[in-house]
What does this fold into?
Amino acid sequence: MYTPDEDVTTTAAAPPMATPASRLRPAADAAAAVADAMRVLLALTVLYGAMSFLVYHVIHMRHVAPLGPDALPGVFSEGRVLQHLRRLAVDIPGRQEGSPGLEAAAQYIKGQLEGLAAQARPEYRVEVEETLVSGSFSMMFLRHRVTLGYRNHKNIVMRISSNVSEEDEPSLLVNGHFDSPLGSPGAADCGSCVASMLELSRLILESGWVPPRPVIFLFNGAEELFLLGSHGFIKTHKWNSTIGAFINIEASGSGGADLVCQSGPGSWPSRIYAQTAKYPMANSVAQDMFGIIPGDTDYRIFAEDIANIPGLDIIFVLGGYFYHTSYDTLENLLPGSIQARGENLFNLVKAFTNSSMLLKESERYNTTVNDRIVNLRAIFFDYMTWFMIFYPRDVSLILHSLPVAVFLLTPLFLNFPNITMMSVFRTVLDLARGMLLHAFGVSLAIVIPAMAAGLRLLFTKNAMNWFSHPYLAFFMFVPASLVGLLLPRFIWGLSEQSHFWGAFGLYSLITLAYMLAGLSGGFLTFFISMSLLLGRFIISSISRKQFSQQQSPGIVA
Ligand SMILES: [Zn+2]
It folds into this structure.
């Protein structure tokens, strides 16, 4: 490890005369510097390798053990979901609008729900309905206004409540669609959603937990064609005005992280998620990104375009290359993903139906209540699905300003106690240089691996084989990225102080910019800048300790 104090001591101890030994010294120093550099590179390789391995393990749900079909009735079982899914995505050929498969799927779902209703204990009230929806609306789609008219799309609806519940009590809606796009078996998108909803409704009825407020399951028959099924339900169904919150489940991949991509209006749906999800997978940056991705979910109908209901949009995001293709099959689902989704959903259903914020449409129009609901979006993110960090927007205003405040004071404390206009000016210039250099390094860390990937396409047919062997991605991208990050440091060597505080300043300013733009992603650079500070504090404390230990014997002698 590099210890500056040792270097200082060695140089000070060297004799001032030109001897053969002193001529050898530059060569020895260079060798020591190379050895130091190699040690740093090795440490970085081990660090990045361990991080990549951990992230791969977590996002592929290796830490979640799927339960089999014979699991106890009081738990959610991925095995039982797969049994439903086999019927929907393998036995039934195609569930596209207008195809016989779609009707067969609707009848399978309805049959399962009626079976559950028939066996439900007397403390539950279970209603199952087959509805046909018709209507019209217009929406902006890929910057074009599209006007849609539709007739007779089939939804299957189930409402589970206690036997003493009122017809107009505020309720929770759980939505998933059973239609699939042309040419796709739709195992993940969204056979996995409706099969999970079948298992969840069974679990509610057999676990003995009676929902304090009704849960409505919408098995939606027309999502792929411009969100018609959800529109028909929310505009025409008799229970539409009772819905106080919704959970939309979707898939744009074959499993992995079941990410909360959108939440709102207001922050209470994401707060409930943060408090109750067993495997939290949520990130407020996702909502910033969702606006620029050309895709839509029923979230748009429930929370934005047609109704203003608070809710969550939860989507499988890994394995996007199977999405809407003939490869969206049962075999390509990632084991453990459905188990994690189901266990999260059961906790969420319990929390939402217990929440005092669950209000029907007429109650939400009360302005005081509305102000409580429609507050600004919070900042939240999970750590490796282990736990979640959540803080409201007003806390973030203070927290995310801290790094910039520290950075602005840096020129003063770096020159303390000899603070002059000139010294402060010189330090500010140095820090600005360090900041520009780090920004350049970060840009190169993105551009160089991208260029290397482009070049590989020209020279080999196997340039994309990291898709099937993900560990190759580490060797293909991480070293090239590190080269990009470190290159400016080798070419334009500034003082260590300028490099460090320049990098810190860059992340501080990005955090501030995010906050001023009203986006929710600033936490990432906030935590980078605070980690830098913490790391520097720890390293300088250790160095000081070592230095004082080296000095003490000399003082005694
Ligand atoms: Zn879908």
